[in-house]
Design brief:
The chain is mainly beta. The protein is built from 2 helices and 11 strands. The strands form 3 sheets. A 6-stranded mixed sheet has the order 4-8-7-2-3-9. The radius of gyration is 16 Å and the shape is globular.
Length: about 140
């Protein structure tokens, strides 16, 4: 992976770590949509606007899951989708559809990446990991 820098959203008192990415239907080649999401290390799962998932022709892959968040426990339907950004390979991940117009990229997707937060520069970076994946096994 190349070194990729992304600035914070400008003009916000509390900066968000936002990322433009592409979501694809793994069943239909070339069926994709650009999307914008917030990196959320506090979320174990990824949420995508449900209308975006439906426009991609995705179908649910199971019964709704109960997921606990700040608003309590709610049920969300799971979908299988591929997510990629900045020319990096797509990752197939189970995502959940929700009613908001932005995505939350949770740890199920983020765990594949090394992300550096640079507060003084107002940016975050995707970088090469320094760990050897064979050491983790």
């Amino acid at each position: 992976m190349n070194y990729l820098e992304h600035p914070y959203d400008p003009g916000r008192v509390s900066p968000r770590l936002s990322l433009d990415f592409v979501i694809e239907n793994p069943q239909v080649e070339g069926m994709s949509k650009p999307c914008r999401g917030i990196l959320d290390t506090g979320s174990e799962v990824t949420f995508i606007p449900e209308d975006c998932l439906l426009r991609l022709g995705l179908s649910t892959i199971g019964s709704p899951a109960e997921i606990r968040g700040l608003g309590g426990v709610k049920k969300y339907y799971p979908y299988a989708a591929e997510i990629g950004f900045d020319g990096n390979p797509n990752k197939l991940v189970e995502v959940y559809g929700w009613q908001y117009n932005y995505a939350l990229l949770g740890m199920d997707w983020l765990e594949e990446y090394c992300v550096q937060l640079d507060g003084p520069c107002g940016a975050f970076r995707f970088m090469e990991s320094r760990c050897d994946s064979s050491e983790e096994e």
